[in-house]
Amino acid sequence: MSTPSIQPGRDPAVQYLLRLGDFCLIHAQRLGEWCGHAPILEEDIALTNLALDLIGQARALLTRAGQVGHARGAPAAFDEDQLAFLREERDYLNPTLVELPRGDFAFTVLRNAAVATWMRLMWTRLQTSSDAELAAIAAKALKESRYHEQHAADWVVRLGDGTPESHRRLQDALDRLWRYTPELFEADAVDEAAAACGLGPRWADLREDWHAAMQALLDEAGVRVPTLGAYVTTGRRGVHSEHMGRLLAEMQHLQRAYPGGAW
């Protein structure tokens, strides 16, 4: 027996919150895959703790999305577990960047740096959100993201300035990852609605500060930023890579196999 999928609706405020919540949730899922596999014990524990921070942020955001959706006419106030585990692939609105396979350690720490820098900028702006609950979530999450960013940045520099092998791996990771970053700054009607009502900034508003921070980090690490093409990924609109379905199959298995299970 499988449990039916839920559809949280298409209200712009709900979509804005789901994008942020799914960003944290799917990134946490990929980070959690490092448990027991990191190159040293300290990083095994550190990466797991980063994933737990992100799950906490996702829970808060998904809970708020369910509350806002219900207040605006959704048939039910979906909780964080329902939104995390019972949607179909096209109803997840995370950027494609975070659903990519975990890759090697260089790919992971570089992705962590890119995401944590973006999150720090977003949480900083969301502290003045017109939604008091979202502003409170941002104030707590900002402290975590600052640590995530520093942890990842230290490793990026360490790998870039390390051995020829570590430098090569970091450059390879950057070449693979960078093409997915334009989606982090794509503007659309959801963002415009959020900005208009004061809920949060347009994602495009983060572009300049993010690029400046990342360029400084990559310069310190001694790696070259690749040239971008015209292609922009579409995970924020629910159109995902081939990796997303496999990720969800694992992440949703328990809830789908045992509907309504509690422990």
Give a structural overview.
The chain has 263 residues and is mainly alpha-helical. It has a single domain (12-257), classed as Ferritin (Up-down Bundle). It contains 10 helices and no strands. The chain is globular. The mean pLDDT is 94.
Tag the structure with descriptive keywords.
single chain, 263 residues, mainly alpha, Ferritin, Phenylacetate-CoA oxygenase subunit PaaI, Aromatic_CoA_ox/epox, PaaC, Ferritin-like_SF
Q: In a few lines, what is going on in this structure?
A:
The protein is mainly α. It contains ten helices and no strands. It has one domain: Ferritin (Up-down Bundle), CATH 1.20.1260.
CATH level 3 topology: Ferritin
Percentage of residues in helical conformation: 55-70%
Q: Under the CATH scheme, which class?
A: Mainly Alpha
Please, what is the CATH homologous superfamily? Ferritin, core subunit, four-helix bundle
Radius of gyration: 18 Å
Element order, helices and strands?
A: HHHHHHHHHH
CATH architecture: Up-down Bundle
Main β sheet profile: none
Mean pLDDT: 94
Number of helices: 10
Shape: globular
Low-confidence stretches: none
| Number of structural units classed as domains | 1
Structural class of the secondary structure composition?
Answer: mainly alpha
The share of residues in extended strands comes to under 5%
